[in-house]
TrEMBL record:
Annotated protein name in UniProt: non-specific serine/threonine protein kinase
EC id: 2.7.11.1
Family that this chain belongs to: Belongs to the protein kinase superfamily. RIO-type Ser/Thr kinase family.
Domain RIO kinase: 24-260
Known catalytic reactions: L-threonyl-[protein] + ATP = O-phospho-L-threonyl-[protein] + ADP + H(+); L-seryl-[protein] + ATP = O-phospho-L-seryl-[protein] + ADP + H(+)
Pfam entry (one): RIO1
Keywords recorded for this protein, A-Z: ATP-binding, Kinase, Magnesium, Metal-binding, Nucleotide-binding, Serine/threonine-protein kinase, Transferase
Residues making up the signal peptide according to the UniProt record: none
Gene Ontology terms for molecular function: ATP binding; metal ion binding; protein serine/threonine kinase activity
Organism encoding this protein: Fervidicoccus fontis
Keyword Metal-binding: yes
Amino acid sequence: MGEDELEKKLNKIFFGKEEQREKDYDILKTVEEVFDTFTLRSLFDLSRKVGLRKISGVISAGKEARVYRGVDNSGRELAIKIYLTFSAEFKKGIYKYIEGDVRFERVKITGTRRLMSIWARKEYSNLKKMFSAGVRVPEPLAQKDNIVVMEFIGKNGVRAPLLKEIGDALRNPAEIYSEIQENIRKMVCSARLVHADLSEYNIMVFDDSPVIIDVSQSVLLSHPNAEEFLRKDVSNIDRFFNRTYGIEVHGDTLLEELMQCLRKSEGSIP
């Protein structure tokens, strides 16, 4: 089923007349080819919670998740991230971000669906902590099961480009670099989190400012691998800006400050 057809069917199910929804089993059946009943129910509950009026096309599609554009009753654009499937390789890789996180140490993972729900809840929790600390991330709005609803980064249905996509066309690389460093500082020293996968592939540029995305894997400073992840994050940003724009980078100086925040948090519980 094509994305346009899926969009029409979803909108008919969720936003059509009540009596039509009750009768439209054929539509529900075809939509379930993409979304199972579990996901549809969660999406319906969230649509009521955030006042969702319309679901539009796919903003981005990866192996594990798709992000759809939505519009709420006030006309505000939303991003609806739905985790759909986890490959065996992906499942194996993400345990290192969950194990050692005190927020989830008592959570039992009983299957793929449960793992997707935990991963979505982890992303929502990380977004809330970062947003509250002043880190420029999409504002988190709601989460249920394998779905996260957040602020849409873009305009008129067009998402903002990734830093990687802009490449050497970036107008103010030195300023963007400094803003990213400041966001990392707030993330570590205020939100007490490490992104753990920061690079040019998960930073958008909107209104000439960076917006950090994809934070499901982000870990607390108390995580046993927090320092390793942090050093890699800072190194990735330095490498990209130095190689792409030839600007002077100073990640080592930033790391000295961040390591002080990291050490202060050792043994603490959020």
